[in-house]
């Protein structure tokens, strides 16, 4: 199993230790290619050292029951109805998880990409059983903001891991060109939100990245982590996560949500994915 590589005297280690001690749900938010997988792995390993059983909520696992022959993954892109359906299901799944494991010492660690609407339902206010939990002090949203240097190192590492994967999940990671395309998309969102003055193409900029995600997460308890260089893992960032319980819809749940959404007609001027 991969070891904990975060220096024990670092601010990042101290932050994770505090979260593991004090909350029951942690969601790592952000674009692909900002180090979420490594941070999830490291938090999971640290939680195990402290006797907490970890459950995971991962986009690539959660979407699978919803990808039917009618709504397949095409050229790496998830169908918009699937994105919506997974988000609708996720709120029910989080509430059900809490009802089963609250007070037992278990920890839910999830990811919240948000870009393109992926798990955006988790961060929007809603009148349901999950809302009070998601906005409480028991749930924490963590936004890792890598420096330009850290982001470049992540992209370089991603290129290597896709070319020579050490874990089956690495072969399906978003390649560097897609990482840059997603950043361009987020840069355009920053302009639409009035966070930048022009729509010009620009390289990854930590301040812009942070401002967009702070906006997206304004309804939740947020902790921003500025990420500099991190020691490289000795193996895959997915090692240590195999076999952990993952939240995932049953085929019947997925089919029911898709059928309901198929009957709903989006209104004129439907909200963009980044509107909260």
Poorly predicted ranges (pLDDT <50, ≥5 residues)? none
Main beta-sheet strand count, sense and barrel state: 5 strands, parallel
Say what the CATH topology of the domain at 11-145 and 206-259 is.
Answer: Rossmann fold
Q: Which CATH C-level class of the domain at 11-145 and 206-259 is it? A: Alpha Beta
Alpha carbon gap, first and last residue:
40 Å
CATH architecture of the domain at 11-145 and 206-259: 3-Layer(aba) Sandwich
Structural class: alpha/beta
Describe this structure in words.
- The longest helix has 22 residues.
- Helix 4 packs across helix 9 and helix 7 packs across helix 8.
- Helices cover 41% and strands 11% of the residues.
- It is globular, with a radius of gyration of 18 Å.
- The protein has 276 residues and is an alpha/beta fold.
- The model has no long low-confidence stretch (mean pLDDT 91).
- The protein has a five-stranded parallel β-sheet with strand order 2-3-1-4-5, sandwiched between helices.
- The protein contains nine helices and five strands.
- The protein has a domain of 189 residues: 3-Layer(aba) Sandwich (Rossmann fold).
């Amino acid at each position: 199993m991969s070891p904990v590589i975060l220096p024990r005297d670092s601010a990042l280690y101290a932050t994770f230790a505090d979260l593991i001690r004090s909350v029951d749900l942690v969601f790592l938010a952000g674009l692909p290619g900002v180090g979420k997988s490594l941070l999830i792995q490291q938090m999971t390993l640290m939680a195990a050292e402290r006797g907490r059983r970890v459950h995971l909520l991962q986009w690539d696992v959660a979407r699978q029951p919803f990808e039917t022959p009618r709504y397949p993954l095409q050229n790496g892109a998830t169908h918009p109805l699937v994105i919506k359906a997974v988000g609708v299901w996720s709120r029910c799944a989080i509430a059900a998880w809490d009802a089963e494991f609250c007070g037992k010492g278990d920890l839910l660690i999830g990811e919240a990409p948000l870009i393109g609407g992926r798990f955006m339902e988790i961060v929007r206010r809603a009148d349901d059983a999950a809302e009070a939990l998601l906005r409480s002090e028991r749930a924490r949203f963590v936004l890792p903001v890598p420096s330009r240097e850290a982001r470049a190192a992540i992209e370089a590492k991603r290129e290597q891991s896709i070319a020579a994967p050490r874990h089956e999940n690495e072969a399906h990671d978003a390649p560097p060109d897609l990482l840059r395309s997603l950043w361009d998309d987020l840069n355009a969102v920053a302009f639409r939100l009035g966070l930048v003055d022009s729509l010009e193409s620009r390289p990854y900029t930590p301040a812009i990245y942070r401002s967009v995600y702070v906006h997206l997460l304004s309804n939740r308890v947020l902790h921003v982590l500025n990420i500099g260089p991190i020691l490289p893992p000795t193996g895959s960032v997915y090692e240590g996560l195999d076999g952990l319980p993952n939240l995932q819809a049953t085929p019947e749940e997925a089919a029911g949500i898709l059928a309901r959404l198929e009957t709903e007609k989006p209104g004129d001027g439907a909200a963009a994915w980044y509107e909260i």
